[in-house]
Design a protein that fits this description.
Helices cover about 20% and strands about 25% of the residues. It is of the alpha+beta class. The protein has one domain: Structural Genomics Hypothetical 15.5 Kd Protein In mrcA-pckA Intergenic Region, Chain A (Roll). The protein has a 5-stranded antiparallel beta sheet with strand order 3-2-5-6-7. Helix 1 crosses helix 2. The termini are far apart. About 10% of the residues have low confidence.
Length: about 110
């Protein structure tokens, strides 16, 4: 079986475990909370491929992810993490990294 090169956006979000169900993925997309390569996408059937950059606003935070691969089926969490690269410098928690002085303490 050949490896998938393109995949529906709703399916990819579900396979990558960004959302719990494919229906939630479709709802997120149609509500306009997902962008692909800076373009808002409102169709769950939009095809994504490796190299595409997704911006997903969900669960009170914004995640920026690069599609690394497509999968033939939904797998474990560790397999799901291999489907994308998180482009947020701070681990994607939605907060800016805190600057520290030489002693290692924050500048607050």
């Amino acid at each position: 079986m050949p490896a998938e090169t393109r995949q529906r956006l709703d399916k990819w979000l579900w396979f990558a475990r960004i959302v719990r169900t494919r229906t939630l993925a479709a709802d997120l997309i149609t509500a306009g909370h997902v962008r692909v390569n800076r373009n808002r996408v409102i169709k769950p059937g939009y095809d994504v491929e490796a190299g595409d950059v997704l911006t997903v606003a969900a669960h009170g935070r914004v995640r920026v992810l690069r599609v690394a691969a497509c999968a033939p089926r939904r797998g474990s969490a560790s397999l799901a993490q291999a489907l994308y690269e998180d482009l947020a410098m701070n681990g994607g928690d939605g907060s800016a990294p805190q600057k520290r002085d030489a002693s290692g303490h924050g500048n607050c």
